[in-house]
Automatic annotation (TrEMBL):
Belongs to the type III pantothenate kinase family. It comes from Lamprobacter modestohalophilus. It catalyses: (R)-pantothenate + ATP = (R)-4'-phosphopantothenate + ADP + H(+). ATP binds at E15, I16, G17, N18, T19, S20, L21, K22, T174. This is Type III pantothenate kinase. A monovalent cation. Ammonium or potassium. The keyword Cytoplasm applies. The gene is coaX.
Amino acid sequence: MLLAQLATSMKLLVEIGNTSLKWAPLDAELPGPMVAARHFGSLPIDVLASWEKLESVDGVLVASVGPASVLDAVSSATAAYWQCPLERIESKGEAWGVQIAYQEPARLGVDRFLALIGAQWLAERPDLLAKAGPDPMRAEPKSATAVTATTHPDSEPPQTPEQGCATLVIDAGTAITFDALLADGRHRGGQILPGIAMLRASLLQGTRMPPHQAQDHYTPWGTDTGPAISAASLQAPAALAERLRSALQQETGKVPRLIITGGDADRLAPLLRRAVHLQPDLVLMGLARFA
Ligand SMILES: Nc1ncnc2c1ncn2[C@@H]1O[C@H](COP(=O)(O)OP(=O)(O)OP(=O)(O)O)[C@@H](O)[C@H]1O
Ligand SMILES: CC(C)(CO)[C@@H](O)C(=O)NCCC(=O)O
Ligand SMILES: [K+]
């Protein structure tokens, strides 16, 4: 009886952002299939419905930069369904070979902290990179955990990141964060930009622009309001990514690896001029290390 319970019990990994909740069961050492859902400030009904069916959860690990109301709801569901401990992970100065650059590491968003830990894990364990997708240059850009080649018209010839290179970690969510991780695990620092939706919304809020349609527009020259805004909201973060990648290459003398995650990762990836590794569950990978 006890053995059967042990064999089927599992841990859940949960990330709460400003827009979405993402979760996965822990599968051995890695996150299993990830589910992402918009939370609108509470626990999404689909998530509740799937959790209700899970019987033997023996621990829940949560990382949150989102509303307290969502964390409270996760906590209530944990108590109601499984009566097991909920552990909240927070940023700290050093963990799993990563040293955080912030003077006050607790001020770094825990999603950035965990993405760095996930990226360091991928750097140390190329076999995990291999598991995430087949050939980096052939995988489909939209697939769940694939590695994608760039489709940018001015693509530079693919340059495989060298052994011992640095990594630029991008999380394209409600906000877009860029973090540099040196080969020895030192976090160099990073930047925070409004996300694609927020870039568009801020223009509507701050101006008297006429109503317009903003569909993703990948060419440089917009010939109406919608395309002009849409193009800028995609190309601004892509341009910053290129700029930071160049800076990191200049500093380290090696071609860095680029890893991208977050709800908008596959909208940005096609705009990047060099190959980028798409890892939708990067933050949950970092969280899995604490399980
Ligand atoms: N179905 C969707 N619902 C909501 N946002 C979506 C959806 N598909 C793509 N997006 C985009 O994903 C972005 C949110 O990304 P994500 O879900 O990763 O955010 P988050 O992790 O909650 O954010 P953060 O961690 O920055 O607070 C939005 O800016 C939006 O442009
Ligand atoms: C920037 C976001 C919103 C991205 O999710 C999050 O990481 C956060 O709230 N960070 C705190 C500020 C910081 O990282 O410096
Ligand atoms: K995030």
